[in-house]
Design brief:
The complex is a heterodimer of chains A (about 350) and B (about 375). By secondary structure, chain A is an alpha/beta fold. Chain A has 8 helices and 17 strands. In chain B, about 40% of the residues lie in helices and about 15% in strands. The chains are: A alpha/beta (about 350), B alpha/beta (about 375).
Chain lengths: ~350, ~375
């Protein structure tokens, strides 16, 4: 549903091109736009990308240019609890967590929506590349952006019907060049700002440095073993590795070695040749069905196991307790516990869940 | 949306009458008062007239009025200038201030301590922000270089009873400074009644322009300049005098004297209405600072338990009402205000502060409209705080 002209809309602004154009489009369409940046982090050493003074200054400048109010709202405590702590715990548990999912669900939606309500706004908007559509039964559907490189539905599969009913994605089907062009047309100073890629809260270092700093005990050296249990070398901490990883092992063999498994109990990294890698089926937990209803039996869908990986056809069998069994048509080498498996039928994102370690 | 301004303790709009007296001094009468020629003489005469006007309104001598660029600069000059002078003359190293001073005093004392070896100690204050007379006496030392106690606090509106304290200082020969930036915007000051040796004032708190202030320096008070250069302002502050702003400040301060009683008469009932309404209608709310008696006439300040004060200010702004909060931070990193923490408030209260400050042009209708939406705004913010 399109809000009536003049409605109050809170736009989450990061100081980047996408959210700036989103705000400009809404303002242009006659909405009463309020720019909001969430302050997520305050450690100056690992200065949060989104909350860095520069980004804030950029967002403030854009807001002033658009003549909209701009507020920075403190979300540090909520962000730590909902995103950072699970990220640290996830690595400690041997997973490769995807903190953006928790952040979207609990911070960018739940938290921001509640603050928007306090500010008198029924709707929030973000600069995501995805589209929301009303479906025949009165609900809402989430659709991919046509550009597979920019489509962000993977990260949005955690949204609920309630979220979607109060959300606007002004960029919808636009492509990045179109968004940059709009930024130029609106005269926004951020038009040429490069895209950001890293995890926002780990700062300019990488996540390994971050983990070393916040939870050094989770990064202990240990043995690298082959599948027979022979010691081939030493690793510097299991969090440094992810399933399917080939680079950086530093161990020569008859053919290249890959990370096959992490043995948490013995702090051992298990490696093997390519033929030992790969799963065709797995469990996923915390399943969210965007339409709000779990199917009563197995369904066929395309399944994406990483943000930018190609979707692969498969079968999803819903189980009790928000669990689902996923069977792919072919085995994949890089199915990684902690990442999301997201389900699609055509352009429609059905939902998804978190890949589990336990084998089928 | 019509916006209603309720943050007059932050700054005030310049009075039309003040603008009018300033205007000729930007362009026609632009001379440098230090120049020998006629252009300079016109400016010098305006400077002298402004100085005499402010002096007369303070019950001071013109030679005791030093123009600065703002209240903060006046604080800096008073604290730094006196501390260095007293050290140079007597070797004194002790600075005594209250724990709820404006950052211009607080941070200056901190720097003197960190970089120059001065020893700063803090006076006990009660929960209303009042300095205890007896404790004050006990904190004075043989080597106390300087005392600084603000006349009225910007965050909580409490007015200290300075005459008692300054009398003690006078008897001991210790210079005492007061930041009267808030107090002087509402109350006529007589330097001998107040009894202090140094007084900071800033024009923009009383419908004068930003960028100009005064430091009153009692005759005989030794002070080293902090900004060195030419011999302007009796050698206390080098810089070509900013004549238009100085002329504006003098006019704005004249109006404080002339209209002070009627302004207070207008402000106090509106202030009381806000205070009474909030304490009656808003659950878990407290007035911060002194009760109605020792309180700035335009100042209502509160804390609300379990409420994000920053968000409340944002929500009020989105409803068209401009207020402030002691913990407010436009970069979204609120900390409990150090003033409220010093007064003993727990973070669960100190983070939820709200300051509403009225101005001479605030209307009954504006206050009514504000009180009409306030409970709902607080309810909405509380719902998401916790």
């Amino acid at each position: 549903m399109k809000p009536v002209s003049g409605s109050k809309i809170v736009v989450g602004m990061s100081g980047g091109v996408d959210s700036s154009v989103a705000a400009a489009l809404l303002k242009d369409q006659g909405y009463d736009v309020i720019g909001v940046m969430l302050r997520l982090w305050s450690d100056s050493e690992t200065e949060n990308r989104c909350c860095a003074p520069d980004a804030q200054l950029d967002a403030r400048r854009i807001a002033s240019q658009l003549d909209i109010p701009f507020y920075v709202i403190d979300a540090q405590e909520a962000f730590y609890q909902a995103v950072v702590q699970p990220f640290i715990d996830g690595y400690a548990a041997g997973n490769t967590p995807n903190p953006c999912l928790n952040c979207n669900r609990q911070i960018r939606w739940q938290f921001l929506r509640s603050r928007a309500k306090a500010l008198g706004a029924e709707y929030i908007a973000t600069g995501h590349y995805a589209r929301i559509e009303s479906s025949e039964n009165g609900g809402y559907r989430l659709l991919k952006n046509p550009d597979p490189d920019k489509d962000q539905s993977y990260f949005l599969h955690v949204l609920t019907q309630e979220d979607l009913s109060q959300t606007i994605f002004p960029l919808a089907d636009l492509s990045k060049p179109e968004v940059r062009q709009l930024a130029r047309e609106f005269g926004l100073a951020v038009a040429e700002r490069p895209d950001s890629q890293d995890l926002c809260f780990v700062g300019h270092g990488n996540y390994r440095d971050f983990l070393r700093k916040v939870n050094p005990s989770s990064i202990k050296p240990g043995p690298i073993l082959d599948l027979n249990g022979s010691v081939l070398g030493e690793h510097q901490g299991l969090a440094d590795y992810t399933i399917g990883q080939r680079k950086g092992l530093g161990i020569a063999g008859a053919e290249p070695y890959y990370v096959v498994e992490k043995d948490l109990e013995n702090n051992a990294l298990i490696i093997g040749f390519k033929n030992k890698l790969g799963r065709i089926g797995f469990y996923a937990v915390d399943i969210n069905w965007i339409n709000g209803e779990s199917p009563s039996e197995s369904i066929s869908a395309d399944i994406r196991i990483r943000y930018k990986s190609k979707a692969m056809p498969g079968k999803i069998t819903p189980l009790d307790n928000n669990l689902a069994q996923i069977d792919l048509t072919e085995s994949l080498p890089d199915i990684t516990p902690g990442q999301a498996a997201v389900f699609y039928q055509g352009q429609v994102c059905l939902g998804g869940g978190i890949i589990q370690r336990e084998a089928l | 949306m019509k916006r209603i301004y309720l943050d007059y303790a932050a700054t005030t709009p310049v009075d039309e009458r003040v603008i009018n007296v300033m205007l000729p001094y930007f362009k026609e009468k632009f001379g440098n008062p230090s120049s020998v020629h006629g252009f300079g003489q016109i400016s010098d005469s305006a400077l002298d007239k402004s100085r005499r006007s402010i002096a007369a309104n303070l019950g001071a001598a013109p030679s005791e009025i030093v123009f600065t660029s703002c209240g903060s600069e006046s604080d800096n000059l008073a604290i730094r200038g006196t501390a260095f002078s007293r050290r140079k003359q007597f070797g004194f190293n002790h600075i005594l201030i209250s724990p709820i001073e404006h950052p211009a005093v607080q941070a200056t004392a901190d720097q003197l301590s960190a970089l120059h070896g001065f020893e700063v100690s803090y006076l006990p204050v009660d929960q209303l922000g009042l300095v205890d007379r007896e404790a004050f006496v006990n904190h004075l030392r043989e080597d106390t270089a300087l005392v600084s106690i603000m006349a009225a606090n910007n965050e909580i509106g409490t007015i200290n009873h300075l005459p008692e304290i300054s009398e003690i200082c006078r008897n001991r020969g210790i210079p005492i400074h007061t930041d009267a930036v808030q107090y002087g915007a509402h109350h006529e000051i007589n330097v001998d009644t107040l009894g202090v040796d140094l007084i900071s004032l800033g024009a923009h708190k009383f419908y004068g322009p930003k960028g100009v202030g005064v430091l009153y320096v009692r005759s005989g008070t030794e002070l080293l300049p902090t900004q060195t250069g030419g011999s302007q302002e009796f050698g206390f502050r080098a810089a070509t005098e900013n004549i238009p702003l100085i002329v504006g400040m003098a006019e704005a301060y004249r109006l404080v004297q002339e209209e002070g009683p009627s302004r207070r008469e207008h402000l106090i009932p509106l202030r009381n209405q806000i205070i009474n309404f909030v304490l009656d209608e808003i659950p878990a709310s407290l007035l911060t600072g002194s009760s109605l008696q020792h309180r700035l006439p335009n100042h209502a300040s509160f804390v609300f338990e379990d409420l994000d004060g920053n968000l409340l200010v944002q929500v009020l702004d989105s409803e068209g009402f401009a207020c402030s909060s002691g913990s407010a931070c436009k970069t979204g990193d609120p900390k409990p205000s150090s003033v409220l923490t010093s007064l003993g408030y727990e973070p669960s209260w100190a983070l939820g502060s709200l300051r509403v400050t009225l101005g001479k042009d605030t209307t009954q209708k504006e206050v009514d409209q504000f009180l009409e939406i306030l409970p709902e705004c607080i309810r909405r913010v509380r719902e998401v705080s916790s």
